[in-house]
Design a protein that fits this description.
- The chain is an alpha+beta fold.
- It contains 10 helices and 11 strands.
- Helix 2 packs across helix 3 and helix 6 packs antiparallel against helix 7.
- The radius of gyration is 18 Å and the shape is globular.
- Its main location: cytoplasm.
Length: 291
């Protein structure tokens, strides 16, 4: 049996829609795989009752098919489904790493990214790599049609998950189909600033570069209390705040000493809007790990 810990992720980071992603050191999924004649999936943990165990409907089923690696698969969910923290990606990424090891396929971590992305297509309809790439590779990743680049870096973060339901389909539906030249130039500049900040492990540059005039304002409308939570986090010392993935989680970039205050401020602001929430004081981390 092979056991893999696959981390949660945050995609988009504001200015990097469908391209940027980071691995978080918590929460995470634990995936165990064992050779079998046919694939079976058992799921426990947070939100497990909402996840299909049919291999044709689960993200890991597509990974099994791509690697030709039937297995008995156990998934202990630490990443809540529909959280904006890459729940389906963590399962797909962990399965890809585990099955590659179990069957000695010899593929590199980079080779496994498009395979895990095919698992994502089962859920979202499109093989996006912005979540699976950081879950497999770790660090800060840039996923494009030409491949994936990754950078190891250390940035303190707070991921705040409210008890709000935001479907990926709804989050996709509100994304603007057109953009003005002014907004496009601003977004490109912010994405470049964020990238430099990641390379320099500079929370101030990363926070400033997360600003996004296009996608984030539209998705923020789906999150009760978003503006108040954002302002509370900034007042507590966050250098930038945005929607994590499709939401409803919110991601705040911090300097290390401010992380606890930022987490508390975000929780209090959600509570003021009668929304229960959980805050993860986390950081950019390594990718999937064989235990």
């Amino acid at each position: 049996m092979i056991t893999v810990r696959a981390p949660a992720t945050s995609a988009n980071l504001g200015s990097g829609f469908d391209v940027f992603g980071v691995a978080l050191d918590r929460p995470a999924d634990i995936i165990r795989v064992e050779r079998a004649e046919r694939t079976t999936i058992e799921i426990t943990g947070v939100g497990s009752q909402y996840i299909p165990t049919d291999p044709e409907k689960n993200t890991v089923g597509a990974v099994v098919d791509a690697l030709d690696a039937p297995a008995r698969i156990e998934i202990d969910k630490g990443v809540r489904p529909a959280s904006g923290l890459g729940s389906s990606a963590a399962s797909a990424a962990g399965a890809a790493v585990a099955l590659n090891e179990l069957y000695d396929r010899g593929l590199s971590r980079t080779d496994l990214v498009p395979i895990a992305a095919e698992g994502e297509a089962v859920v979202s309809g499109t093989a996006h790599a912005d979540n699976v790439a950081p879950s497999i590779l770790g660090g800060f990743t840039i996923a494009t049609a030409d491949g994936v680049e990754s950078v190891d870096t250390e940035i303190p973060l707070v991921a705040c998950l409210p008890e709000i339901a935001v479907s990926t389909r709804d989050a996709r539906r509100v994304v603007p189909e057109t953009a003005s030249m002014e907004d496009l130039v601003e977004t490109v500049g912010n994405a470049a600033t964020l990238s430099v900040g990641m390379c320099q492990a500079d929370p101030d540059l990363v926070g400033r570069g997360m600003a996004d005039p296009l996608v984030t304002p539209a998705r923020a409308e789906l999150i009760t209390g978003y503006d108040a939570v954002r302002e509370a986090a900034l007042d507590a010392g966050a250098t930038g705040v945005t929607v994590s993935g499709a939401g409803p989680s919110m991601l705040a970039v911090c300097r290390g000493p401010d992380r606890r205050d930022v987490a508390t401020a975000m929780l209090d602001a959600f509570a003021a809007h009668d929304v229960e929430a959980r805050a993860y004081q986390t950081q950019i981390s390594d990718g999937a790990t064989i235990l």
